[in-house]
Amino acid sequence: MTAALMLELRDLSKSFELHHQHGARLNVLRGIDLRLHAGECVVLSGPSGAGKSTLLRVIYANYRPSFGAVHVRHDERWIDLAKATPHEVLEVRRRTLAYVSQFLRVIPRVPALDIVAEPLLQMGVDEPEARRRAGDLLRRLNVPERLWALPPSTFSGGEQQRVNIARGLIARRPILLLDEPTASLDVENRNVVAQLLAEARADGSAVLGIFHDEDMRDRVATRLFPMQALEAA
Ligand SMILES: Nc1ncnc2c1ncn2[C@@H]1O[C@H](COP(=O)(O)OP(=O)(O)OP(=O)(O)O)[C@@H](O)[C@H]1O
């Protein structure tokens, strides 16, 4: 059986208007076509400035593309996020699309355990179960138990990143977008993340990510998607 198509980008382009430079335009993405299937891990590769992070942000609907389509399979129907309403975007993010960036957006005064459990609570999992699963995941990611009741604002970069990964992976989503989620992690914790991604793929998640570390890229990628920097318009 062929794996289900989960995400399809068609002729996608993105340019930014540079307001401080008299409205000059910077072309970052042009004519991107990409198909992502369940169980795949496609890694975006290419030099700094090639538009890798921009592409993930366009897919997550943080940026609207200048041209083209972002088709996402959501509840067995297709939604073009380039044209979706804000309500549809939120629905897709709640159940279909997860985005794990390099940095944890710390919510003041909320303990690490609650930050990780929150996506499960939003899906209707009861609180004791959500907190138990959050603890299990933090333990796997070697976040010491003494930190779980504390807000992560004082955590080290690597500890914050592991809380961020736990929050992003705890509620299994069909499509995972990962922007350098392992940049500040040591080898042992990178291994844990590689294992968690393998489990997500085995469960049918489709993964699209950026990993600058070559070793990590080689371990997790089923395919590379090369990108090149464009000239300014
Ligand atoms: N909001 C924005 N407004 C204007 N220009 C932007 C914006 N976001 C990104 N850019 C520009 O788009 C280009 C691509 O940036 P992007 O961060 O997507 O590259 P990247 O391939 O992820 O790079 P790196 O590997 O260094 O993280 C850069 O020249 C950047 O300055």
TrEMBL record:
<dbReference type="InterPro" id="IPR017871">
    <property type="entry name" value="ABC_transporter-like_CS"/>
</dbReference>
<keyword id="KW-0547">Nucleotide-binding</keyword>
<dbReference type="InterPro" id="IPR027417">
    <property type="entry name" value="P-loop_NTPase"/>
</dbReference>
<dbReference type="GO" id="GO:0016829">
    <property type="term" value="F:lyase activity"/>
</dbReference>
<dbReference type="InterPro" id="IPR012701">
    <property type="entry name" value="CP_lyase_PhnL"/>
</dbReference>
<dbReference type="InterPro" id="IPR003593">
    <property type="entry name" value="AAA+_ATPase"/>
</dbReference>
<comment type="similarity">
    <text>Belongs to the ABC transporter superfamily.</text>
</comment>
<keyword id="KW-0456">Lyase</keyword>
<protein>
    <submittedName>
        <fullName>Phosphonate C-P lyase system protein PhnL</fullName>
    </submittedName>
</protein>
<dbReference type="InterPro" id="IPR003439">
    <property type="entry name" value="ABC_transporter-like_ATP-bd"/>
</dbReference>
<dbReference type="Pfam" id="PF00005">
    <property type="entry name" value="ABC_tran"/>
</dbReference>
<keyword id="KW-0067">ATP-binding</keyword>
<feature type="domain" description="ABC transporter">
    <location>
        <begin position="7"/>
        <end position="232"/>
    </location>
</feature>
<dbReference type="GO" id="GO:0016887">
    <property type="term" value="F:ATP hydrolysis activity"/>
</dbReference>
<dbReference type="GO" id="GO:0005524">
    <property type="term" value="F:ATP binding"/>
</dbReference>
